[in-house]
Batch of 4 targets.
Target 1
Amino acid sequence: MTPTTNDPHTLGAQLAGNPALNAAIDAIVGEVRAASSEITDVRGPVEGLAEGYRRAMERATEARGRGLLYPYIGSGLGNGALVELADGSVKWDMICGIGVQFFGHSDEQLLRAALHASTEDVLKHGNLQSNAGAFEFAEMLVREAKKTSRMAHAFVSTSGVMANENALKICYQKHAPASRVIAFQHCFMGRTTTMSQIGDNAAARVGLPLNVDADYMPFYDEVAAERMGGTKYIDMALMHLEQYIGRYPNQHSCFIFELVQGEGGFNTSTRDYFVALMEMCRAHGIAVWDDEIQTFGRTDRMFAYEHLDLGEYIDVVSVGKMTQACATLFTEQYNPKPGLLSGTFTGAGVEFAVGMSIVERLVSGGYYGEDGKIAGHHAEFRRQVRALAARHPELFPANGEIADIVGGQGGMMRFTPFGGEKDKIIRACNVLFDEGVITFYCGHGPYHVRMLPPLGVMKMEDWPRVFEIVERGLLKAASGA
Ligand SMILES: Cc1ncc(COP(=O)(O)O)c(C=O)c1O
């Protein structure tokens, strides 16, 4: 597809190439760079801003009808992994809006892409009328996905949960009238009424009528697998799946795979476990849907299915978060009939431009592979946790349910102080926030401290600085101070 911006014959293309416009964008980028470069380290709130910040927080609470999880309102400026809040404080952002800002804060290249796209005639594009960005974004995702899977097309949408809704509709339609779904224990899929029902979290569906029939499979459990022996563990899971299939013959439309569980606790699995389940799905005509909304871009390959070499099994993939705009990818066989997918918005031109810039950087930035930047950061993260635990074993009491105090995959990082007790982990996250490192928790018990750091811009030398604060914060949380 020829981008409109390269077409010399349109006025729009001429505007995009206009030297005065480009000089103005350079000037803006330069100003932001100068301001951003003043942010160099963590600091507390600036004197005189505390009262205004408290009032802003109250207004946010009033507008939302409930308080914020963290007292976080950004100032609009940051520098890499550091972000400034509206009270003037600066913190290490190790959670990035739950995985959205992989290239951190005030990134020059993404700002430039956003500025260019913001000169387009409209902000939001739709399924009826759109500039080229939406299609180029979809095309780029398919180009990358195709390298190791059968993905043929992508339908763009506005949020992760909408990408999942579209994935489910595609699976339902292909296998109609099959109406059941199979999902993993501890899965998370988003917050529509349907996805809240499938997500394995009772609190997320309080008061919702239940009209989706979901059957749950155990996610791979390293401790149990070790106890039983790997092959027996897989046989047990296959027996479990066969029972569902036998109990409801031809009624399952899809099995939803989160290859590294996000909200569920950054749980990982062996390839063999997934292969066994996916082969059984294939044998019974059940779609294999891979929800990569949290994993995309973050494992040792761009797609988690590539990392696990599972591309041949996948029928549908949903992506989001780091991609800015979201999408559902599917094979030729799963291309739905006209009329199934649509909606007013596909997204904002700025989202497509920034999303494409991100994917291009992921492709060419040396992030993937055994020696890639992501693997390097993950190894350093583990080293920092182990060193911390060696210095303070009292912070990491043994708990038979926890295979390891440090875990996750690539840019999905977790560690488990305080035996994974919910209250203590939440308290630890709050103390770390106050001290200057923003994390969040994950898991349903044991609970873990979770990091989704901006590995796109993080430097190796940032880790000891982050962990110096983590150490201080955990000691403070432990002491109850
Ligand atoms: C695996 C997974 N699926 C779906 C979603 C929903 O995405 P969104 O919050 O953008 O709707 C999330 C969000 O955390 C997720 O982690």
Target 2
Amino acid sequence: MRLEHRVAIITGASRGIGRAYAERFLNEGASVVVADVDDASAETSVSELAALGPVTYVHTDVSVAASTEACAQAAIDAYGQIDILVNNAALYGDWNLADQSEEYLRRVFDVNLHGVWLMTRAVAPHMVREGYGRVVNQASAAAYNYVGTRTSDGFTGLNAFNYQQTKRGVIGLTKFSAGQLGAYGITVNCLAPGVIDTAATRSVVPQSVIEQLAGLQAVPGVLHAEDLTGAAVYFASAEARFVTGQVLVIDGGKYMPA
Ligand SMILES: NC(=O)c1ccc[n+]([C@@H]2O[C@H](COP(=O)([O-])OP(=O)(O)OC[C@H]3O[C@@H](n4cnc5c(N)ncnc54)[C@H](O)[C@@H]3O)[C@@H](O)[C@H]2O)c1
């Protein structure tokens, strides 16, 4: 029960990795606010998770400032405080790789990067008032991949740099927020997972490729959402009070950034 009496907002927790965080945080004694745009999926998850502890769904679009502020207020109204924010929501399963337009590039940045800033900005005053807070951001080991996808049929124009570079931005934002908020007892850290076997991944990457990539790791094997939850709990716990601005890559040792 490492998160007993704590209140956590977890974005994108309707499914996949976010849902695994919600389940683990409830098992560690936290009250959880699931913040997501997918009402049907979130309501199903919340009704299934309710047996584990106090959990509420708040419809939240992380790319809209007013929505993030309403989410923070709803958490306060429901549980009286906000101790933990997990910025997990992103266009990943819903990411449209084929759309290389400028408009869509801006959309991916709005959700994956600006959404992390907006949610952090929305909860920060509540954490500052308490003099305590834990922010855990979800980047990706993709942030270290500068090649991205290339077409085999010659040059068709410069591709939109979107998913990978939004995650690179999340790493920078983690360090910026850690610097800004540390004096108020708030730590901000970041997880950078490799390929995780979620429904979202399976919808874009064939199982054979998931297994092939797993063989390239220092520690071979397919990673699952549950392989991330222990690290998220550590960053979110009181014992990590002097750990801030850090990035933890969890990918079996495929990328080992300095
Ligand atoms: N699965 C992987 O291999 C992997 C690897 C590295 C990082 N990640 C990151 O982990 C996170 C979760 O991944 P996943 O596999 O569970 O993906 P997913 O697509 O299943 O989950 C994303 C969640 O975010 C929600 N969401 C999307 N846009 C939103 C918005 N504007 N506001 C609020 N919620 C929104 C979705 O409804 C969904 O619940 C993402 O940040 C992803 O980039 C995933």
Target 3
Amino acid sequence: MSTGYDHTAGPLTTESGAPIASNNQSEAAGPGGPLLIQDQVLLEKLAHFNRERIPERVVHARGAGAYGTFTVTADVTAYTRAAFLSEVGKETETFLRFSTVAGSLGSADAVRDPRGWALKFYTEEGNYDLVGNNTPVFFIRDAIKFPDFIHTQKRDPYTGSQEADNVWDFWSHSPESVHQVTWLFGDRGIPASYRHMDGFGSHTYQWVNEAGEQFWVKYHFKTDQGIRNLTQAEADALAGTDPDSHQRDLREAIERGEYPSWTVQVQIMPAAEAATYRFNPFDLTKVWPNADYPRITIGKLELNRNPENVFAEVEQSAFSPAHFVPGIGPSPDKMLQGRLFAYGDAHRYRVGVNADQLPVNRPHATVARNGNRDGLGYDGRHGRSRNYEPNSFGGPAETGRPLWAPVQVAGATGAWETPRHAEDDDFVQAGNLYRLMSADEQDRLIANLAGFLAKVGRDDIVERAVGNFAKADEQYGKRLAAAVAELRGR
Ligand code: HEM
């Protein structure tokens, strides 16, 4: 990401390029001061320093990123017309930012929290962003609940700390969270590093092929390094002694030439099967069991280049679930639909209206051509080209071909509950996950959950929370109730 200039040769200069005589003593009215307003070197330096920070991400503030290569290993042209997936062996440049969710920019890496998995494919038809997590499901199924949920994960307005009461109050009032909470407090809740975890697109997305046939798709990225996790005790120790553990591990592995990689798989559902599938396929709190829709391996993702400048390329990186390319589109998932708005809006606030044209964010394999111009930080890249369409001067024109296929909708507008399919309830998959765990993992799950739940002050919140786990599996609920009662001494 070099600018072409050598920033080390020649004298120190001001921002406007004039040589600096003194960078260690301010200009003063006599040896003892006071300082002079004519010392523009001092004033410019202090003023620039005051403006070094941009707002941190409201969630996923803490993260690390790397560039890489995605390679297609299977023919998927029957399912999508996306150009970057059009040929076995085809390679696409990528940038992947990993993150934790709740902590602020300076927080520790080794914590129990989902890990963000934000992947940008720089394709020849525009950038395709897949903004997922290391978990296949999520806590809630409607975007309108997200700000309330995050408020309970972040610092309480009065105490200034995360409060167990708030976290469990929200979760216990949102029984659809039991599946993700079971996942999070199980062994995979604290990955040993970003390299040793899987990634997921999590939502269901639409793929459409050249003939216009539609499919619903879920993405899985299986780590080739193997899954490795930390216990709560290991993580507590590491977070205290080495807060940057995950970030450094990623950078150093790439520096050593040990490029981490993931096997990319998809589950594919023909569009016509969605209406009668046993689970609502657009409910983000549910997985599609592999037995129903087996995973198909379609590619390899390798990370092989560190960013040169963390602020420019990681802090200013901007991913949006609304960044689609021809052949890929959204599903009606009510979480995804909200996210289609939220990210671009966040970028315009956090990085500015020209965020998408910064080097890390702009298309690398094509260029952005439209009439959008100006605004803070605009670099004039369009030169004298006209800024409207249609025009008679050979400007770019619309294609008339939507990126994705139309989706049938039905019913009146309204604040509806998400429709339930034959086997849907909030608890069935959480119970299945609990019963899938080994006895040892169940023990650790109960201990991890009880340790946090026992910090809750109010009995009604504890009871409501335990009641939800009991609905997932009676034994799960009973064991948790006993463990919490023991820790709370009542
Ligand atoms: C409706 C629910 C959600 C809303 C409103 C929301 C909103 C946001 C916002 C505003 C950001 C900060 C973006 C920025 O400043 O660049 C963010 C970051 C992120 N979100 Fe969400 N989010 C939601 C759900 C999810 C879900 C379900 C996932 C994963 C499946 C997810 C994954 C991420 C990731 C990975 C990032 C960090 C992106 C990066 O590395 O820059 N979010 N989210």
Target 4
Amino acid sequence: MAQTRPAAAPAPNDLESYWLPFTPNRSFKRAPRFVVRAKDMHYYTADNRPVLDGTAGLWCSNAGHSRDPIVAAITRAAEQLDYAPPFQFAHPAAFELAGRIAALTPADLNRVFFCNSGSEAVDTALKIALAYHNVRGEGGRTRLIGRERGYHGVGFGGISVGGIVNNRKFFGSLLSGVDHLPATYSREHQAFTKGEPQWGAHLADDLERIVALHDASTIAAVIVEPMAGSTGVLPPPQGYLQRLRAICDRHGILLIFDEVITGFGRLGCAFAAERYGVVPDMIAFAKGVTSGAVPMGGVIACDGIYEAFMRGPEHVIELFHGYTYSAHPLACAAGLATLDVYRDEKLFARAKALEPHFAEAAMRLKDFPGVLDIRTVGLAAGIELASRAGTPGLRAYQAMERAFEEQGLMIRVAGETIALSPPLIVSEAQIDEIFDKVGRVIKAVA
Ligand SMILES: Cc1ncc(COP(=O)(O)O)c(C=O)c1O
């Protein structure tokens, strides 16, 4: 039964209390991987062993770690304004950051709603989509369309439109009225492609089938990751996103890009929307907006969506949605300083310039034992390994453990795929170091 500790007792020096997210807790606690500080491209362990960051933390530390201007901005903000309520009140940095983000987006994506994570950003975008149709008198548009293998965080909205079975199957009936496009990946047609594969644009046409099944008048929005990251780095087939956009336009369906990973430079542009020349109606963002230094997420909506809400009596709240920590002063300060670093160091252009070298380095592992496929786009790579019989995922998991312990390298695994996404400040030599180390690890787990 529950036992309480006396309030004055010292904090326990053990690993029991913390229930780690998306982690096999018992294995971790048997052999924990701790980092205690970070600077630029490296984490450091308690015994001061450097660990090269091959993953920008969790796809978020795009400017590198503990960067001086960002640290200074957060410190200043904590001293000056620790918190301001975002309902009915505001502080200047929230407006400044919203304007700076809007300036990075194409076309009329000008209205920024803040929250604290990618999951909240996705649920916010889905709710705005439903409410948008409602306030326009098309309240029958309630269906949401996601995609198989999609990852949109862990809120009920996000797991409902998401398409990763383990993130869904334990959690009941999820949202009703959700349908899914097919995943865009085919190893047969796409293996070892650098950048966007040629095969697969036609998979967008499945949206027409879904429209024929349900009728467009019942469909509110389609949400996709322009590049699916968490399911193992799946770049979009050439022309796929353009086709989705055209079908959405034909049927009055909103198109939402989940750019939680692709936003802020990962693909060599501020947003994937720019790389692909496709303008969605909303972009969900998080992670890179503060380079991971303070939690923050948000939704960028086009003018038309915002304006549709600005019609009733002026004293009435237009959108009944928001979070206690929306536009938190520390997050806004971190965001502004991060955007300065991206601009001053031209990090998005740097990612673009490094893309060919990164792709070449990744493809050098093509003939390594057990490698089934390598996919690259921008500064992201997925290296898919063959599963060992009866233990799916174990090989890649062991690769991650060995990379950390033996090679001083942080990598991520998604199923049997090793995912690499270093901070955008990575050098060519560090890219080579990352893939050399990954190669050694792949051999070790062969
Ligand atoms: C595309 C995408 N959407 C949403 C999320 C969820 O973000 P968070 O973990 O901040 O809730 C992620 C996280 O990796 C993501 O990759």
